[in-house]
Amino acid sequence: MEAVITASKPGYTLKQLILYFLKLGYAGFGGPVALVGYMHRDLVEERKWIAEEEYKDGLALAQLAPGPLAAQLGIYLGYVHFRVLGATLCGLAFVLPSFCMVVAIGIAYKLFGGLPWMQAIFYGVGAAVVGIIAISSFKLTEKSIGKINPASFVKNWMLWIFFLLAAITTIVTQQEQVLLFIIAGLLYMFVKAPPKRFQKPSIANSIFLTGIGFWQFEFNTLGQIAWFFTKAGAFVFGSGLAIVPFLHSGVVTEYGWLNEHEFVDAVAVAMITPGPVVITVGFIGYLVAGFPGASVAALATFLPCYLFTILPAPYFKKYGKHPSIKAFVDGITAAVIGALAGSVIVIAARTIKDIPTALIALATIIILLRIKKVKEPHIILVAALAGLALKLLV
Q1: Cβ–Cβ contacts within 10 Å for residue 7, how many?
Q2: How far apart are CA 38 and CA 24, in angstroms?
Q3: Residues near 316 by Cβ (< 8 Å), separated by ≥ 6?
Q4: CB contact at 8 A, 68 and 279
Q5: Total-model pTM
Q6: Would you list the domain boundaries of the chain?
Q7: Continuous H helices in 249-322
Q8: What span, in angstroms and rounded, lies between the C-alpha atoms of 216 and 292?
Q9: Distances 368 to 29, 165, 373 between C-alpha atoms, Å
């Protein structure tokens, strides 16, 4: 018999839920962790539209599948009572506001990116972004692998090895190695919780052998954008800035679509706009191939996470907590976070070029570690003003 999600009759309409995600999309700052927290506070605790168990199931599925965490959870919560139509409309409502914002910023960037004041803003912002990525890497490491202490090294030694291998590989090659992630996931699954069919020694042993650039694009480039960002949406585990090393390896190193400063600026745009952090793909796509590039990049990135949410949703209650599946994702996650840590070094080496930028990056790290109430957009704003002031003084 087909497994289905058991959901009580909703005390709200689909229109109400769409309007909620539309508001969250244009006013929800703070990154994926904050966004999923807002959903729990608003939809579970205050409005009681979603049951606690339904929310937990959606969060677990979003963590298991690749793609942006907050967007996947929003899609799942739309699916709970309104199935595919609800998932589709809620996902669009959540993503569209920030997509429009990054396209508008892309237009301004193309128009004014060469002006001294724009360069001064991103001079400070780029350094702050390095600090934000460093803290994100640190928090993801502690959350997904364990505290950085001897006890954690002993308990999760294999995950730490994946972490270090991915970090070193990223630093040396300056690229994210997707194959390494998959291998890490498979190895950890077969060691930690092998499927029953592979538990026999003989089988298990065999496994281990234009102006503003709005319409400026080329169809060949659009094809490359579609393929690259589909991989980004389908193979990158973790949330928010976990996608940064993958984007960096392709956008800067492999295809050369953006230079280092433009890439750091793209990450900064994700920090100062509401909604999912991954929407920076729209900004990148716009710089590469105008509005068509932005649209293709966003669609290619979010379509896999949409499918990874609605297709397994009816069966997740039955199979989602299977030890083999969880072990596979744990192994991949450790490698992904290691790659993020490695990308911090790569990006910092190309962005931190003088004492002021080093101080801005260091101040960002200290503030995010010590003052919990400070949000990333506030830091980006202060860094932008600092960059302007420093350039004016010079």
Answers
A1: 15
A2: 8
A3: 5, 57, 60, 61
A4: no
A5: 0.69
A6: 105-393
A7: 260-272, 280-310, 316-319
A8: 8
A9: 15, 27, 9
- Residue position matching structure tokens 């796509």: 285
Determine the residue type at 44: V
Nearest CA to 172 among 351, 342, 353, 352? 342
Query: Phi first, then psi: what are they for 195, rounded to 5°?
Result: -55, 150
- For 346-379, what is the HEC assignment? HHHHHHCCCHHHHHHHHHHHHHHHHCCCCCHHHH
Alpha-helical segments (H) within 174-279? 178-192, 201-207, 219-235, 244-248, 260-272
How many other C-beta atoms lie within 10 A of the C-beta of residue 172?
Answer: 10
Q: Quickly count: other Cβ atoms within 10 Å of residue 102's Cβ.
A: 26
pLDDT tens digits, 334-384: 776 777 678 778 778 877 878 988 999 999 889 988 887 787 778 888 988
Distances (CA, A) of 391 to 126, 197, 267, 292, 384: 14, 64, 21, 35, 11
For the chain, the C-alpha Rg in angstroms (whole number) is 21
- How far, in Å, CA of 47 to CA of 311, rounded? 27
C-alpha–C-alpha distance, residues 106 and 286, integer Å: 6
CA distance 135 to 342: 13
DSSP one-letter code for 43: I
65-120 pLDDT, tens digit each: 777 878 999 999 999 999 999 999 999 999 999 999 999 988 888 888 665 777 78
**Which amino acid, residue 221?**
T
